[in-house]
Amino acid sequence: MAQNKNALIRYKTIDKCLQNNYRQWTLQDLVDACSDALYEYEGRDVNVSLRTTQLDIQLMRSDKLGYNAPIEVYDKRFYRYSDPDYSITNIPLTENDMTILNESVEMLKQFKNFSLFQDLNGVIQRLEDTIYVEKTHQLAIIHLDKNEQLKGLEHFDTIYQAIVKRICLILNYQSFKADEPTKTHFHPYILKQFNNRWFVVGRKEGHSRIVTFALDRIAGIDYDLDLDYSNDDFDGDLYYKDTYGVTVLGDSMLMDVVLKVDRENAPYVITKPLHQSQTLVKTFEDGSVIFQLRVHLNMEFDRLILGFGPCIEVLKPKILRNRIRNRFKLAYEQYVGGASRDTET
């Protein structure tokens, strides 16, 4: 048992003793009570020393633990609370405690439908009740991205349990390009979130290539208990090491990318790198910078660059520079045509 847990048991035991005003408590009595409590929890003798108990009382009296317990000695040998109604369990929550609890509850509630968090439901409810009693509701300080209308989350727990219990799945999956769903026997390896969407990464039965399925495109799901599960020691961190997003491409599309970022956006890219491989190459007098990173040139990375508009210029490689330039050209032509259509209407 961890030492800090032992200490908490001793604090609670001393507190319980000192709440009992029908008995006089010597230091040795408190030592014996703590030893008995630790024996009950650990199932073995734990010798609590007089010095340890004295230090516990000293800490309980101080503000280090937030207790400020009014422990006093009377008749030169007995211990008690000067306030007979005091208990370390009755300490009111501070303003900071309330803020932390309130935001923690909000974050925990994001996972309310997942079975691995279901045991917390009662705890969350009790925390909410405590917060309500202590203070009226206040507006959230931390605002998390969430989409209550996001499809596919009902499959999250089934997939999670399959990964934990090493069970194969039968997916009824319909991609955006398909006219109807197709049935696939699938070995799930990890669940991955990107851009407020969830994906399951794994391998189709009979295939060696790793594939990614979006949960919002799964039309139906079931377990396949007859198929032996194998995850091939899959390492998600290693698999996505060179990728922005979820689309992992072949080595031919893994390239060194050189970007020039203007002065206004350079601080954002410095403090929030576009990819873990990003390094600063050069800083110009006007405040613009050049970065280099090594990533797969996938669709997600294209969209990231396009999202910066004219604030980022692709210097290398040529294939990416041409691709971004052509997309900006098409967008320009579309808006030029759209402007003429607007005047017609």
Describe this structure in words.
Helix 1 packs across helix 2, helix 1 crosses helix 3 and helix 4 runs antiparallel to helix 5. A hairpin with a 5-residue loop joins strand 10 and strand 11. The chain has 345 residues and is α+β, with helices and mostly antiparallel strands. The chain folds into 4 domains: 88 residues, Arc Repressor Mutant, subunit A, CATH 1.10.10; 40 residues, no CATH class; 87 residues, SH3 type barrels; 86 residues, Alpha-Beta Plaits (2-Layer Sandwich). The model has no long low-confidence stretch (mean pLDDT 85). The N and C termini lie far apart (76 Å). Helices cover 38% and strands 22% of the residues. It contains 10 helices and 12 strands. The strands form 3 sheets. A 5-stranded antiparallel beta sheet has the order 7-6-5-4-8.
CATH class of the largest domain: Mainly Alpha
Distance between the termini: 76 Å
The biggest beta sheet reads: 5 strands, antiparallel
Mean pLDDT: 85
H-E string = HEHHEEHHHEEEEEHEHEEHEH
The CATH architecture category of the largest domain equals: Orthogonal Bundle
Oligomerization state = single chain
Shape label: elongated
Note the beta-strand portion: 15-25%
Task: Enumerate the strands of the largest sheet in spatial order, edge to edge or round the barrel.
Answer: 7-6-5-4-8
* Uncertain spans: none
User: Into how many domains do the coordinates divide?
Assistant: 4
Number of helical stretches of at least 4 residues: 10
Overall structural class, as computed from helix and strand content, comes to: alpha+beta
Question: What portion of residues is helical?
Answer: 25-40%
How many beta strands in the DSSP annotation?
Answer: 12
User: How many whole angstroms does the radius of gyration measure?
Assistant: 30 Å
Under CATH, the topology of the largest domain can be stated as: Arc Repressor Mutant, subunit A
